[in-house]
Amino acid sequence: MHGSTPTPPPLPERTDSLNNRCEEGELRRAPWFQAGIPREITLEVLSQEPEGAFMVRESTSKPGCYALSLRVPREFQPSGIAHYLIMRTNKGYKIKGFTKEFTTLTALITHHSVMPELLPCPLSLSRYNPSFVKTDSNKDFADIDSDPDYNTLADFRKMMADLNV
């Protein structure tokens, strides 16, 4: 076949350092990623949140790993919060005790927001959607100052920003 187009050469695999640089920027923008947040603050913040709310931080007990803290049904865990270890693997990341591996932390989180797998509930990304605005009335905008949860989260984010974490 003379007129067929040649198959392009395979794309070079992304090097680890490039992949890490791309992902680092992505993680810095992800509200669920709070690298240096202490476990106690994670517990405090998540205890006010609905089931499925979660945070990922660097593990203090296992250097090089991440901790996934997830607000779960109390019948699953009496405290309402369960912790999972996210380990680095040759392919990327996986939750300890789970079989699926993901090339990036973001891919792992996105997958578990759709398919909880062994988690007691899916990870909820919805509460992190800053573009969601109720349009039924302007009253909602006036009330934002009197919403204690909103203020707590806003104060917390400002505190974390001030700490430059």
Write the SSE topology.
Elements: H1 16-29, H2 39-47, E1 54-58, E2 66-71, E3 81-88, E4 93-95, H3 105-114, H4 139-143, H5 148-162
Antiparallel strand pairs: 1-2, 2-3, 3-4
InterPro entries: SH2, SH2_dom_sf
Protein name: Src-like-adapter 2
Keywords: SH2 domain
Q: At the fourth CATH level, what is the homologous superfamily of the largest domain?
A: SH2 domain
Q: Into which percentage range does the β-strand content fall?
A: 5-15%
* Name of the CATH architecture of the largest domain: 2-Layer Sandwich
Straight-line distance between termini: 59 Å
* β-strand number: 4
The general outline is globular
Q: How is the biggest beta sheet arranged? A: 4 strands, antiparallel
The domain count comes to: 2
Tell me the helix content.
25-40%
Instruction: Give the CATH class of the largest domain.
Output: Alpha Beta
CATH topology of the largest domain: SHC Adaptor Protein
Count of helix runs:
5
What is the string of helix and strand elements? HHEEEEHHH
Secondary-structure-based class equals alpha+beta
Widest β-sheet, arrangement of strands:
1-2-3-4
Question: C-alpha Rg, in Å?
Answer: 20 Å
The averaged pLDDT comes out at 78
Question: How is this structure best described in words?
Answer:
Helices cover 32% and strands 13% of the residues. It is α+β, with helices and mostly antiparallel strands and 165 residues long. A 4-stranded antiparallel β-sheet has the order 1-2-3-4. This is Src-like-adapter 2.
